[in-house]
Amino acid sequence: MTRLWLVRHGETEWSRDGRHTSTTDLPLTEDGEETARSLAPRLGSESFALVLSSPRQRARRTAALAGFAEPEITEDLAEWAYGDYEGVSTEEIRRTVPGWTVWSHPVPGGEAAAAVAARLDRVVARVREVDGDVLVFAHGHSLRALAARWLGLDVRDGRLLRLDTATISQLGFERESPVVLRWNG
User: Fold this and answer.
1) In the annotation, is 9 catalytic?
2) Which SUPFAM superfamilies match (predicted)?
3) Which fold has domain 4-182?
């Protein structure tokens, strides 16, 4: 059965500083580039029937440095659109909206959880049609939400899965049940 490999992009200035980054197209930091290169030996021995990436340069650059220079680009893997909270940290948002998280509160001018779920459901459906493993390069919240949808959970249940930059996670099946095989490695 198909395994879905998830790679969060390397560090950017905003991911390092805890600022929400969706549509702002930031490059990787030097550390981000270095850790992205370190993914190549870990992924190079694997065989992938399909490699997908978010259109953002941080995901595409991570893919290239990891040895996958020409992934298929899909907008469905873009980060959750943060709207008015683009570039703002959770701490700053909570000064006016106590307890705010992307998982539990609306995002003014941004993307609703249902819209995120719909596009990630398209990714899940596509991956499950592939004969072989699939590798995706994307972002923290979108990959956590993708994992939740893979497991048949509400998109908001992605809150239960911490995901660091430049990490490899793997989803698959135990018999016919979708499962997490490896996380945040």
Assistant:
1) yes
2) Phosphoglycerate mutase-like (SSF53254)
3) Rossmann fold (3.40.50)
